[in-house]
């Protein structure tokens, strides 16, 4: 028995180490920057379940649920495939500035593997601690210059000597979540708090054509990967209002990050903050099943970089320098890298998440889910959001768990997000429009032991 425990502990440590190395390469654009769920069980019910703890990854949405689990260990791996594309539609004035009209340009990066791990340990009958490791992303795109008209890239960087014409961004976030939770009210409720450590990595290319609009054009594009640490807190509570109904709520603070290597792109010399979010929900037992309904609010508009007014400000509040000079420096409050600067212009996002979980007599647990939220990219800001088309609105999910020998359980989930397109005016060419489109699917498998 002791040997089995030691072996399991060593395996857990090895998996934790491997996951910590793997996550910085992910991308996961489902609800803007945020994933629709964390782990296969949450994914099967479309990210609902803040009041329905199923495994230790509950800490990612509500740390109050950790104390409800007992000892729990979950290892999860998701295959995520987002398809992104943009189309520039011509006008009588077309041809002067990129992006140029032409055939649809598709992002080449379409396959990602996203691991996660969740662990919980009871300290007593009414106290517990947990640890979770998981990732976010959301802006990963890769548009080859050869697929664009004249081969100059989406934003014309191919016309800038020495610049990388391939346009795109690789942005990922790793969260380490250390949580504590405790029961109250005679065990009918619990509260929890998580200390969040975040490591974010970003790389951008193909934006050198915006140099005349930047306060620091040498730190605008093609600077390689830049990584920054950030810290935040997530708090939550849940309460049984009856033997069959549980209510829950949680809130995560905004996390500040500043990328000095891209000080000429993001507001106030490189700020790109991770937005705060809040979630409330209900879980209601109905016979052999549980219905879950959550509402999540993501505060994109108040997060610097993501929510700052979009690049429409370049043509009104920025005095550009002469292009292709040796040291171009723009001036004005609405220049890239300036103060207050401009960002992607994303609006707040409200998402409704619904799920149903039920068990059958053959050791199977089944899940279905659906979520909907109005995408955050304003039509007037589609041009710059070519590199960050986080426009998905709906998710359809199914999943199951199967009891295995020795107390283990295998879980699987499938997610499909149908195509959503957003069309708006081109930033620089009157009458010309840009259309952003995205669809995606994901396969998620996990094992608990």
Summarize the entry for a quick read.
The chain is mainly beta. It has 3 helices and 16 strands. The protein has one domain: Porin, CATH 2.40.160.
Question: What features would you describe in this structure?
Answer:
Helix content is 7%, strand content 42%. With 449 residues, it is mainly beta. The protein has one domain (2-448): Beta Barrel (Porin), CATH 2.40.160.60. A 14-stranded antiparallel β-barrel has the order 1-3-4-6-7-8-9-10-11-12-13-14-15-16. Mean pLDDT is 90; it is low at 1-12 and 14-27.
Topology, pairings included?
Layout lengths: L1 H21 L17 H5 L27 E18 L15 E2 L5 E13 L2 E10 L4 E3 L23 E18 L4 E17 L20 E17 L2 E8 L14 H4 L6 E10 L2 E10 L50 E11 L4 E10 L20 E10 L5 E17 L7 E16 L1
Antiparallel strand pairs: 1-2, 1-3, 1-16, 3-4, 4-6, 5-6, 6-7, 7-8, 8-9, 9-10, 10-11, 11-12, 12-13, 13-14, 14-15, 15-16
């Amino acid at each position: 028995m002791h040997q089995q425990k030691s072996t399991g502990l060593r395996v857990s440590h090895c998996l934790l180490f491997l996951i910590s190395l793997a996550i910085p390469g992910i991308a996961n654009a489902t609800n803007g920057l945020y994933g629709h769920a964390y782990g296969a069980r949450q994914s099967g019910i479309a990210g609902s379940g803040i009041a329905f703890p199923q495994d230790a990854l509950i800490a990612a949405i509500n740390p109050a649920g950790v104390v409800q689990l007992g000892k729990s260990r979950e290892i999860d791996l998701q295959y995520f495939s987002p398809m992104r594309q943009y189309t520039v539609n011509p006008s009588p004035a077309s041809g002067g500035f990129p992006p140029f009209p032409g055939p649809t340009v598709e992002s080449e990066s379409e396959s990602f593997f996203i691991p996660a791990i969740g662990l919980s340990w009871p300290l007593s009958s009414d106290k517990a601690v947990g640890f979770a490791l998981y990732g976010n992303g959301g802006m990963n795109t890769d548009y080859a210059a050869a697929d664009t008209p004249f081969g100059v890239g989406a934003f014309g960087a191919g016309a800038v000597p020495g610049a990388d014409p391939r346009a795109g961004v690789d942005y990922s976030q790793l969260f380490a979540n250390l949580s504590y939770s405790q029961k109250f009210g005679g065990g009918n409720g619990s509260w929890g708090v998580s200390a969040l450590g975040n490591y974010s990595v970003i790389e951008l290319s193909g934006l050198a054509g915006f140099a005349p609009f930047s306060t620091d054009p040498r730190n605008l594009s093609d600077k390689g990967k830049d990584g920054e640490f950030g810290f935040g807190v997530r708090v939550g509570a849940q309460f049984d209002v009856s033997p069959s109904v549980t209510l829950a709520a949680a809130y995560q603070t905004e996390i500040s990050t500043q990328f000095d290597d891209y000080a000429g792109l993001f507001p106030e010399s490189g700020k790109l903050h991770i937005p705060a979010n809040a979630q409330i929900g209900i879980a209601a037992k109905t016979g052999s099943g549980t219905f879950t309904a959550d509402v999540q609010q993501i505060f994109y508009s108040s997060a610097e970089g993501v929510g700052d007014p979009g690049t429409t400000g370049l043509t009104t509040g920025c005095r550009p320098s002469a292009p292709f000079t040796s040291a171009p420096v723009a001036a004005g409050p609405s220049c890239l890298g300036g103060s207050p600067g401009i960002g992607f212009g994303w609006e707040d996002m409200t998402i409704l998440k619904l799920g149903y979980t039920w068990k059958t007599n053959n050791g199977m647990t089944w899940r279905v889910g659906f979520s909907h939220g109005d995408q955050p990219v304003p039509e007037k800001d589609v041009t710059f959001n070519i590199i960050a088309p986080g426009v998905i609105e709906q998710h359809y999910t199914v999943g199951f768990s199967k009891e295995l020998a020795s107390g283990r359980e295998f879980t699987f989930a499938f997610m499909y997000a149908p195509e959503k397109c957003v069309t708006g005016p081109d930033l620089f060419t009157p009458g010309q429009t840009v259309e952003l489109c995205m669809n995606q699917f994901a396969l998620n498998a996990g094992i608990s032991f």
